[in-house]
Design brief:
The chain has 329 residues and is mainly α. It has three domains: 42 residues, no CATH class; 46 residues, no CATH class; 212 residues, Orthogonal Bundle (MetI-like fold), CATH 1.10.3720.10. The protein contains 15 helices and two strands. The chain has a two-stranded antiparallel sheet. Helix 3 packs across helix 14 and helix 4 crosses helix 8.
């Protein structure tokens, strides 16, 4: 159907006959010919409603401000005294201003903040390295190596993304206990259940990297193969250097998952000296039967601060990896 204005005459006369014009002629003004209201029906193009750039930015600013309110409230509470933090109605601007809450967190005998940070950083380094490398290897196989049943295997792998951790929690706990009983290596009560599975890949990360690998030109791999380079050589010398944005996205997502993980350490870790930051904050919250909210908020700010700093440092590469993933061409 033509998108421009169309005239459907009802009288059966040819177009232009209303004004004594022959077929193919138009009105002097260049507009479509129109007769009386009873003779023609004019169908006009629908106009699309679009927001101006100013209106779009205003909407985004409002949404961003709403998302920042919890963080600003946490930051405000971390600079208050306990009495002001518990005051009702709540006071948003801290008065008096108490930055010493951050130092009190480190001096608190029940909050081993530096120890929890060391445990979390060590666990995150092992898990991020494992899941990034293993997921990239599997994704390379799905993207660049043709084999029978690849689509079916890939679909089954994607199906595992719909299984949440609480569903497999009891089975995994029994598996790690069985490994400890029959291999002579202790699993429960250690960090192994938290980082060893990461070296077997992650379904979401494999999917993300596969989509990025599909955008890389196949000619590069073929040229390297002609020069005698094998699949591992192509992977490490060509694919990985070109996939830094996607690898950064996977590493950042993995780091955030390990850094904020609470349920995993709660299930497998048994001693307070092994607590991670998420588990340590929960222990700090319930100490002595009460919650020092001002110090808890100060500790929470310090916990999320490394993630924010890491995101801003890798922001350009992160956005590049997200925007180019899946754009084959």
């Amino acid at each position: 159907m033509n998108e421009t204005s169309e005239i459907i005459p009802r009288s059966g006369r040819p177009e232009g006959a209303l004004f004594g014009q022959t077929k193919g002629q138009s009105a002097p003004s260049g507009r479509p010919l129109r007769g009386d209201a009873g003779d023609t029906i004019v169908k006009s193009r629908r106009r699309k409603f679009t927001l101006t750039p100013w209106a779009t930015h205003a909407v985004l600013i409002v949404i961003s401000a709403l998302a920042l309110i919890p963080f600003l409230w946490m930051l405000s509470t971390s600079l208050k005294t306990l009495d002001v933090a518990m005051q009702f109605p709540p006071q948003f601007i801290p008065h008096p201003f108490v930055p010493s809450n951050y130092a009190d967190v480190f001096r608190n005998p029940n909050a081993h903040f530096l120890l929890w940070t060391r445990n979390t950083v060590m666990l995150a380094a092992l898990a991020v390295t494992g899941t990034t490398l293993s997921s990239a290897l599997v994704a390379y196989g799905f993207a660049k190596i043709k084999f029978r049943g690849a689509g079916l295997v890939f679909a089954i792998m994607l199906g595992t993304m719909m299984i949440p951790f609480p569903v497999t929690m009891v089975s995994l706990f029994s598996l790690f206990r069985w490994l400890g009983d029959h291999t002579g290596t202790q699993w429960l009560g250690t960090y192994k259940p938290l980082w060893v599975p990461a070296w077997f890949g992650s379904a979401f990360n494999i999917f993300l990297l596969r989509q990025f690998f599909l955008t890389l030109p196949t000619d590069l791999s073929e040229a390297a193969r002609i020069d005698g380079c094998g699949d591992l050589g192509i992977f490490f010398r060509i694919i990985l250097p070109l996939s830094r944005p996607a690898l950064t996205v996977v590493a950042l997502f993995s780091f955030m998952g390990v850094w904020n993980d609470f349920l995993g350490p709660l299930v497998y870790i048994q001693r307070p000296q092994q607590f991670t930051l998420a588990l340590g904050l929960q222990n700090f919250q319930t100490q002595l039967g009460g919650t020092p909210w001002h110090q808890l908020m100060a500790a929470s700010v310090m916990v999320i601060l490394p993630v924010i700093v890491l995101y801003f440092l890798a922001q350009k590469t992160f956005i590049e990896g997200i925007s180019t993933t899946g754009m084959k061409g």
